Amino acid sequence: MLPLFLLLFAAAPADVVVMPAIEISRGSSRAPDEQPVRAIQLTAFAIDRTEVSIDAFEHFVRAAWNDATVWSEDGRVWRDASGRGAGRDMREAGREGNHPVVAVSWFEADAYCRWNGGKLPTEAQWERAACDGGAGPFPWGTEQREGVRWATKSVNFGEIRINTAPVDEDVSSEPMGLRHMVGNVWEWTADWYDRDAYASGPSIDPVGPDTGRWKTIRGGSFSNLPSYSTCTHREPAEPNDVRLTVGFRCVYSSH
């Protein structure tokens, strides 16, 4: 018989990783907006093993784009002003359907996760999954690894090539079997970005501010140097941004 904490997530999609409740030290001394390092407690959740693929997202577009119940109020406003988003050609960007979808706004990512029975991860959930409570800076420890989809030198965005890997490619031995928590594509989180967010707020299941201008993206991408692709690095992005470097994955709760 499955342990109780696994049975609680029986309704989640098949390919998820369950993250048991834990206390971790969130943040690092590497950047001002990653400080202070502080102990937080997180309840159990499940997270997609992989980033959402092009094929999975296009299934959502066909099945639920016009379903108002899966969009937030602001998301419906964005959808009604944006047609079908960036369109499949841009979301695909010349790649196979098993690569991570890109060129999706925060509103689209949020709607997809709602439709799939989940939500976007908070920054705390994302960081817990990426580092599994370890010190980092990378999911597997301190050394840089060959095969991770990140840049080895600065990228000229006038000549950018969408150099992602299939979402289920295993090259980095990340904790608990997760794939591409760093590198490949940036990932949207649920939280509004606040440079000083780590300095205050609850120590149990912390979330970002109630409002803001930017959402937070995490994990770096194929176009970023390893210093950006760590478990703790944080970047702001406007929720209506459509970038060829940004995708997402979802989380699921037991209630």
Strand content: 5-15%
| H/E element sequence | HEEEEHHHHHEEEEE
Class by SSE composition: alpha+beta
Shape: globular
**CA gyration radius, whole angstroms:** 17 Å
CATH architecture: Alpha-Beta Complex
The low-confidence runs, each spanning 5 or more residues with pLDDT under 50, are none
Q: Might you state the CATH topology name?
A: paralog of FGE (formylglycine-generating enzyme)
- Under CATH at level 1, the class stands as Alpha Beta
Which superfamily, in CATH terms, is the homologous superfamily?
Answer: paralog of FGE (formylglycine-generating enzyme)
Q: Provide the residue-averaged pLDDT.
A: 91
Q: Span from first to last CA?
A: 21 Å
Biggest sheet statistics: 4 strands, mixed
Q: Helix count?
A: 6
Number of separate structural domains: 1
Descriptive overview:
This protein is of the alpha+beta class and 255 residues long. The protein has one domain (15-252): paralog of FGE (formylglycine-generating enzyme) (Alpha-Beta Complex). The chain contains six helices and nine strands, in the order αββββαααααβββββ. The chain has helices spanning 4-7, 54-64, 73-82, 88-92, 106-115, 123-131; strands at 16-19, 22-26, 38-42, 45-48, 186-192, 215-218, 234-237, 246-247, 251-252. A four-stranded mixed beta sheet has the order 7-6-5-8. Helix 3 packs across helix 5 (106-115). The protein starts with a helix and ends with a strand.
Structure summary:
Helices cover 19% and strands 15% of the residues. The chain has 255 residues and is α+β, with helices and mostly antiparallel strands.
Blueprint (SSEs and pairs):
Elements: H1 4-7, E1 16-19, E2 22-26, E3 38-42, E4 45-48, H2 54-64, H3 73-82, H4 88-92, H5 106-115, H6 123-131, E5 186-192, E6 215-218, E7 234-237, E8 246-247, E9 251-252
Parallel strand pairs: 5-8
Antiparallel strand pairs: 1-4, 2-3, 4-9, 5-6, 6-7
